[in-house]
Write a structure and sequence with these properties.
By secondary structure, the protein is mainly beta. It is built from 1 helix and 10 strands. The chain has a single domain, classed as Immunoglobulin-like. Helices cover about 5% and strands about 40% of the residues. It has a 5-stranded mixed beta sheet. The longest helix has 4 residues.
């Protein structure tokens, strides 16, 4: 993600990188927005009910990367947020946490009034 601030309703594009030494398995449909509350990350519900996606499991080899896009849902509160993939496993079938799969945090601002 190139910018540090995005507007509610904007589509953002990011890169998923496998920095481990083994293959990871993921479905990029399971992407969630998390809001920073004090020192914790809280999952924000998607007011539109989520994205339409396939349930295709993808693998990403060591050092490989993939591009994903996500539209910040209307009605999302401004603040410090991050994107996290859930349902990611390593080659040993160990689930990774959102701390392992999250983007850098960024600011989310309300769009200007019409």
């Amino acid at each position: 993600m190139a910018s540090e601030t995005y507007l509610v309703g904007e589509e953002i594009t990011g890169t998923v990188r496998n920095t481990s030494t083994g293959v990871i398995y993921l479905n990029t449909c399971f992407l969630q927005l998390e809001h920073q509350v004090r020192h914790r990350w809280v999952v924000l519900p998607n007011p539109k009910g989520g994205r339409v996606c396939t349930t295709q499991l993808n693998s990403l080899g060591p050092g490989s990367e993939s591009t994903i896009s996500f539209r910040i849902p209307e009605g999302t509160s401004p603040g410090r947020v991050r994107l996290a993939l859930v349902g990611v496993w390593d080659a040993s079938d160990r689930p990774l946490t959102s701390n392992d799969t999250a983007s850098h945090s960024f600011s989310l601002a309300a769009p200007p009034p019409p």
